[in-house]
# Entry
Amino acid sequence: MALTREDVQHVAWLARLQLTEEEIDLFREHLSAILEYAQVLAEIDVSDVPPTATVLPMRNVMREDEVRPSLPRDVVLSNAPDKQDGYFRVRAVLDTGDEG
Amino acid sequence: MELYTLTAHEARELLRRGEISSLELTRAVLDRINQVESDVKAYITLTPETALAQAEEADRRFQEARQDGTTDELPSLLGIPLAVKDVISTRGIRTTCASRILHNYIPPYDATAVQRLRAAGAVIVGKTNTDEFAMGWSTENSAFGPSHNPWDLSRVPGGSSGGNAAALAAHETIIAIGSDTGGSVRQPAAFTNQVALRPTYGRVSRYGLVAFASSLDQIGPMTKDVTDCALVYQTIAGYDPNDSTSVNQPVEDVLSVLGEDIRGVRVGVPTEYFGEGIDERVAAQVREALHVLETLGAEVVEISLPLTPHSIPAYYIIATAEASANLARFDGVRYGYSAPADSLWEHYMRTRGEGFGPEVKRRIILGTYALSAGYYDAYYLRAQKVRTLIRQDFERAFEHVDVIAGPTTPVLPWPIGWAMENPVQAYLTDLLTLSQAIAGIPAMSVPAGFVDGLPVGLQLVGKAFDERTLFRVAYAFEQATGWGRHQAPLVSSGETQE
# Structure
């Protein structure tokens, strides 16, 4: 399963991850090797086998919808790289050109 | 005798009798850190001031309890120095995940496991090194540089909880907690002659553990001996409403089984755990360990877990897929590193591109690929189906045996630099610790002797929620062999490739 540079760049874009030219080449090589190794999974007959998402027998875990204490706003914002008037401050979401 | 060489249960007796104080014990550990840390590099962050304050508080409680004759009612780990892997949140103490992207992050709350250890009186001395976001086998993937194995400083201490393992072996802490997603407490314990337990999935709350792969992550104790492992496990195990995957059923008393004989215990030895990819010398040492179990009255039988080799690709697809989703939260907005950028998209791309190290990026890319349109069925869904078959492998085996045993790792600790140069081959060294995580069952590593001066671990695997049998067998083995009492020399045999 050989990946192309374009495959790696596409996936990096999906993951919002900027890669250097060297990283694209390196990861293309590594991921091709790993995916080739993963082909052993294709040898196993999994027809009629249900997937396991969690090992626990539990499904939805519900609780009463009660108001409980939460962290104060200044504590929540204490690690923020940029903040203003009690909000996280981000770059403009709209009008960022055609990329998004 | 140096106080820093004590186990927690030994120190506890001396503390209760007033023969030593927690301040003396904590100072001894902090002095020891000052003495050896430049060689070992086990810690990312040290907290000596708060540790000494907590120790003084512990001593006040000991003094009061001795006056009232109530020392037996004191919490189990009062005044005992503790190291916490730096992927586990500690309120007010920097928690970096060994990543540039969280280099300045200070959690506003404690992980439940940490909160329970604090309530039990443990004294936090620092946060230990790990592979970035616990992704690795050696601590080589740390933004803060690798830790060194006290048995040979030119080799890795394993990983990802390698900082804990190195700290324990060099006596830079008394007890530790780490996390295990595919072997990350067991493998470093094996590489450094320490004890570690990966509990049953759901047994210990993951609240406050920075998520790597949520269906696989578990917090577990790392200690100098089996009794300490039981003390820490008993403290952190149990239901937590803050973790919807924590299991609401009573925790069995594991301390009471220490010392029970193991006559008649059926020990299954999978053929695959001694097959392809296993270092012959490691295999031979573990066969001797199995012989010890036999002489103690256990019945050792050969079994087969045919899907063991398939656990590697199944694990790496499931774990990286979950990681790619979990690590989406690191966007430079709410915490951590934030790259300068003009637009929102550039800000995300650069923050994550500059904030994450190579192994984390490799895994995010692999996981995103496995979940992406057109590949989901072929990789992720298929891996989840193989996960079902791996669970069934174990269920069938446990119809005939009480515990499964074999080597913890297929190889000996490698020279620093090897996994960085050979990342794809390094994935294969996880062969023996992945399937238990995939199945969600408990597994433990205990010291089982040495090959050329390097430690070898015996892995014991149990049925879900049957930690008791693991502790019973592990303790019997430890008492019969005494391998864990051997002390690391803190010397280097070769050149590191740093």
